[in-house]
Structure formats: structure tokens, C-alpha cells
Specification:
423 residues, 17 helices, single chain
Amino acid sequence: MGNMIRQSLAIQIIIAALFAWLITGIFSEQRELLFTVNEPLSLIKTLYIGLLKSIVGLMVLFSLIEGISNIGSIVKLKKVGMLTLAFYMFTTTIAIVLGLGAALMMPEWTPLSSAPPVSDNINLIDSDSASGLAITSKLIGMALINPISALSSGNLLAIVVFALIFSIALIAALPQNHPVFEVVRGVNKGISALVNGIVRLAPFAVFAIVFDFTIEPNDALFSQLFEFAALVFVLTMIHGLVVLPAIARLGAGIKFGTLFKAISAPMSMAFATSSSSATLPLTIKTAREKLGVSDSTSSIVLPLGAVMNMDGTALFEGVAAVFLAQLFGVDLSTTGIVMIFIMAMVSSVGAPGMPSGSMSGMQLVLLAAGIPLEAIAVLLIIERPLDTFRTAVNVQGDLVASAVIDRIAGEEKQYQAVKTQLS
């Protein structure tokens, strides 16, 4: 038993989370003591998240460059890229349809007589920002910036775009055995060693995060908000426990138990941190070591997934839009529902891989459906707990995508090899 705990990071994370929850429950009446203990613990959380964020940009940059260079040709890169985009659009569509369908079939929620105030931490966007041109302009502005600035600010979308463009240029200009690619591989080995060391701190960080989360008062929930949260939770579980495992089984031949045993550590980390970006180093490590995904595939599919594959977020935004429309007395027409579908998909691309990072995208969905932006304040009451589950599903979707695409790419490679031998 002791050896199993020492060898399993996922078990260590779960034990740390349960231990933190247990301590806050036992000493729930001694709030001053809990807040005093929480101050030094918050340093552990800050240290861990800071260490991961300090390397995630470089890791994405160099892993993408290595992954694309390993593919070896622009034709092969195009195939993997198109497969990745198609897969992410497919699973995101399923998530949104699942969320919208269930929300529209539910009995209507009772409209509110008054709404809570919007937090000062949320910057509401103006209605002009909801147009297709404005959204496109915003995404381009996020993607095409100085790569040094992108690394310093943690803008994964810009890092991914630069890495793709730069890697394609390297493939076109240099032979595959050029020393530049050897340097990139060496840097990646160093980053991997650093990630392995940082990940060992995960149980301590999870303890600190759960401790901080569970000592906060949670008495502002309404009955309707609880029903909404329960619906989002159930739908997220259906997507994570039925839809994605079915895709993994059909597309990669991975059984249910095998899948969750392999990906339990990154899912636990995503659940605790609510950050797909912070979990990315562990996600890549798990894909390669537990799922057997090749370096070339994982180096492309997973960084892209951290930027654009947000199944849980898209599902949440679809349900939340219907919920808020009914709460604020907005009659959703067919056009409104279609706009929610489109905007939920578009806004999930490039959503910040950080806690509550979907709130900016949620505003675009509300504007597109004609729902008052002040409605965002209702979501903020329950959004943070739900963020933990949907981030875990986002990471699960990335890992399933890497396994399925790696298998398809591998079968294509075997087919071409056999075809070459026969000709």
C-alpha cells in the first residue's frame, strides 16, 4: 500500500485534497486559526503555480518546434494539423449540443426580481465587441504579437501561432538533421527534467489550494443556482464519463478503466488548479509515458488543445446562456440559440487556460443572445466550483485527442510503408 502511494502521483494528490478538506471541516468553528494557517500555505500554492507558469510558455514553444520538425514535411504537418482541428471542432460541437439540448428541455427557471451587483474584478465589454469582425480582430490581435511579449505574458495562443509559423519556416529552409533541431531537442530534454521535478510538489500545492478553497464561506447560493450547478455538473460528467471514453475506445482502442488509470494525475491537477495551462507539462508527460503517444503528436496536439479545446467551457457557456436568458426574461428565438451555439464555440478558442478564464468569452455569448451583461454577476457566485470540473474535462479531451490522432497518424504511416514496399 505504501509503495503504491509513493509511486502514484494521482493518489498522493487525492489524499492531499481529502486531508485539506478534513482539516477545514474539523476546525470549521475556529476560522481565525484557519485563516492564520492559510497565509503560509498560500505561499506554497503561489510557488507551485508560479513555477509551472514560468516554464509553460517555453515548453509549448520548443515542444511544438520539435514536434513539427519530427514530422519532417509540410505535407505530413498539414495532415496532423487538420486532424487536430477536426477532432477539437467535433468534440466541442458535441459538448455545446449536449448543454443546449438539456438546458432547453429543462423546466424554465423563474425570472429574478433583482440581480446581484457585478464584481469590480470583472471588466464588462461593450456591445460593439460582439460583432464577428470585432471577435476576429481580437483573436488576430491576441495571436500576432511579439513572441518575447507572448512568453512574458503567458499568451499561449500567440506562442502557438509563432511556433507553428517558425517551425514551418525551419522545415522549409533546413535539412532535418540540421544542428538547430538537435539544440531544440536538447532544450526539450532539459525542460522535461525540470517539469518532472516541479510535478513532485503537486500534492503539497493541491493541499494548499483545497485548504484555501474550503475555508471560504459559501452561503450565497440560491436554490435555482444550485439546480443550474447540478445540471452543469451532470452534463459535464456525461461528457467526461460517456462521450470522451467512447471516443477513446472507438478511436484509439483504449478501455474505460485503462484510460482513467492513465490520465488520473493530470485530471486531478486540473481539478485542483482550474488551469489547463498550468497542467500542460503534466498532461504532455502523461500522454507520452502512460498513453504511449509519440513525441511528435503530443508536442502538437496538446499545446493546441490547451488553447482551443475547451469542451467543458463550451458546454458550460451553452447551459449558462439559456439559464441567464430565462432568469432575466429574455425570449430566445431560433436565431438566439444559433448565436449561442456559434459564440460558445468561437469564444472557447483562445480562452485563457486559467481559473475563471471563460468569463470574457461568456460575455460575448451573452451579448450575441441579447442577454444583459449584468447577468454575469449571477454566474460568479457558482462559477469557481464548476470551473474545477470543466477544466478536468478540458484536459481529458486533450489527452483523448492525442491518443486518437496518434493512432490515426500511425496507421497512415504504416499504410504508406506497406504501399512503398509493394510498389
